[in-house]
Amino acid sequence: MAILDQYRENLPIYRKMNGYLSAHLREVFTDAGILVAAIESRIKSEESLIGKLQRKGNKYPSIEEITDIVGLRIITFYTDDVDKVASVLERIFEIDWENSIDKRKIHQTDRFGYLSLHYICRLPEAECLRQGAPEMNRFRFEIQMRTVLQHAWANMNHDIGYKSGVEVPTEYLRNLSRLAGMLELADEQFSLIRTEINNYRRKMQALVASGNLDEVPLDGDTFRSYLAAEPFKALNRKIAAINQAEIQTVPLDGFLPVFKSFGFKTIGDIANLIRDYAEGAYQIACYQISLTDLDIISSSIGPQNLCIAYLLRSGSGKAGLKFLFDTLNGPSASNETMAAMMLKQATCMPFMNQ
């Protein structure tokens, strides 16, 4: 068959396209900030092509008319990411709209796993020239876009319904259709939940930025937003000035469980801690480093000393201090010794007698 001869002759081009397209898409999605679950690619095998020609041979006068010799599948985590991926493809490829199809518009309950968006694409001539491979512009290729759940369903349903070679009884098909509906609902709900969480984060970030901290509940997201505003910066600079030390920035996420153990409910509680205990934290630092030649301090010294001052003033004693050190540094026998020493030093500090 002439088309098979053309296929074999052009196989090196297909391989070049397959490798380039996979790498190019990964780079483009990274630049666009789109996280995809997987990018799959393949070149249609000769056996598969023979089968296609046997079914539809009269439709293809030449190999250029077969649009899925090179095929890619982009699997997203969320349904709305399919449209984001499609938008990116429309910018970087020439889309053959006449032969592309949006199967998501098919409203049949048993077609969930096949509701992919299919684009027939061509690499722009200018891009092929940049890659030193103008021959890649000759051939179109297919890209399918679907979600993880759609992909899993399509694979399972194909295995159950087709590979066995046995017609599936009606009662089992009905159960498969019910399951398809549940998965489609789950797909929609995952996207909805992500949207709601993102809206919540934006709202909390706005509240933090506006200074309405008593209205901001204390959780991982709001704490990270608060840390971005560097609330301990002024205290750390004051402490660093004791020895004209340099401040080394370290992650402060580990303080969240400490603040929660204090019973803090809002970001405003942390702001109040800074307001009420900054002087005590500074006095503790003076005892820690004023008689040393320490010229580098960690950015954790400010929040840690605030917590120490809070625990000392609240009467939590050695047990409270040990819990703090265990939480921040990991359990260690030395933490009890450090807690006892800190408790002893505190008796001489002015803030303890205010």
Number of helices: 13
Any idea what the CATH architecture of the largest domain is? 2-Layer Sandwich
Major beta sheet, specifics?
6 strands, mixed
Terminal Cα separation, in Å? Answer: 96 Å
Compute the number of strand runs.
8
CATH class label of the largest domain: Alpha Beta
Please report which band the strand proportion falls in: under 5%, 5-15%, 15-25%, 25-35%, 35-45% or over 45%: 5-15%
Uncertain segments: none
Give the proportion of residues in helices: 55-70%
Number of domains: 2
Radius of gyration: 31 Å
Task: State the shape.
Answer: elongated
CATH superfamily of the largest domain: Beta Polymerase, domain 2
Helix/strand/pairing class, anyone?
alpha/beta
Structural features, described:
By secondary structure, this protein is α/β, with parallel strands linked by helices. Helices cover 58% and strands 11% of the residues. It contains 13 helices and eight strands. It has helices at residues 2-32, 46-56, 79-92, 125-130, 148-163, 170-210, 220-228, 233-240, 255-261, 267-289, 301-313, 317-329, 333-346; strands at residues 36-43, 70-76, 94-95, 101-102, 117-122, 141-147, 246-248, 296-298. The protein folds into two domains: 2-186, Beta Polymerase, domain 2 (2-Layer Sandwich), CATH 3.30.460.10; 216-353, no CATH class. Helix 5 packs antiparallel against helix 6, helix 10 crosses helix 11 and helix 12 (317-329) packs across helix 13. 25% of the residues are buried. The strands form two sheets. Strands 1, 2, 3, 4, 5 and 6 form a six-stranded mixed β-sheet that branches.
